[in-house]
Amino acid sequence: MINQIKEHISEVEKFTSSDKDAIESFRIKYLGKKGLFNHFFSDFKNVPNDQKKEFGQIVNQLKAVVTEKVTTLKQALEDEKLAHGVYGDLTRPGEPLNLGSRHPISIVKNQIIDIFSRIGFNVSEGPEIEDDWHNFTALNLPEYHPARDMQDTFFIQTAPDILLRTHTSSVQVRYMENNKPPIRTISPGRVYRNEAISARSHCFFHQIEGLYIDKDVSFADLKQTLQFFTTELFGKSEIRLRPSYFPFTEPSAEVDVYWGLETEADYRMTKGTGWLEIMGCGMVDPNVLTNCGIDANEFSGFAFGMGIDRIALLLHQISDIRLLSENDLRFLEQFKSAL
Ligand code: PHE
Question: What does the record say about how the cofactor binds (predicted)?
């Protein structure tokens, strides 16, 4: 019997494998419940007394060599896995890195933020689900004011005071309520209007609105700021302000930029006039300042607001606004930007 065990020991010493299952069955063969170790050990009582010592030693040796063998083989397996897992084959050529692309709305939004941040504007944000006060009443649009119809609003049925904001002017109200002048902030964000979806309009889109409040702010400051903006964003410095109406600004204006009539696309985009309407603006109505806790005798200011989607369409010659929310990869992959 002792010789038999010795044979097993030399077999164990010779054994090698790099297969996880084979190593496991090897372990079970010797050390499992019905394995050889237990088999020999249960024979211990039949061994003559004078051989018990040698027998015990040899059986224990068997257990020790098997344990050591299994540990070494498993360790080798782990090491190999680690080497491959972390570094793989070091001679292989690198994997191609696919650069992601930003959504055109984000690209244009970031460009606009970048331009205004250079003249001291910070960025403010607010909730998309708004209350009546911040979206309408504080902005000089009390209940039953006819101008509320200018913005087809989604109301929350169970809470008539709560709505999806129709413009980011609501963020400006929040900002004025919480900050003292001088104020220079732009508020980008998504807005919602109950409009039919077509190539030119959508029931949600994005705006960026600006607010400047300080002592002695004039209409000339507004025009200068907008001219700086159009020059930076479009490379076009000729703008015109057409009188318009917004309940929260007085006087109010629409801003057109002279796009030019050099190409056929220019003709198409500007309907042959060379001018493109890009935003609304005006001097903040003193009522709005008062509503937001700012002394209208001491401070004045201007505000402006534009649709990011519309500007993205212009800048990237996109013909259908719906493309911006369809998440078609073939479309999105065309936009690469560091911004
Ligand atoms: N809030 C206006 C809109 O959504 C835009 C605007 C902002 C006009 C600020 C004037 C001043 O149409």
Answer: Binds 2 magnesium ions per tetramer.
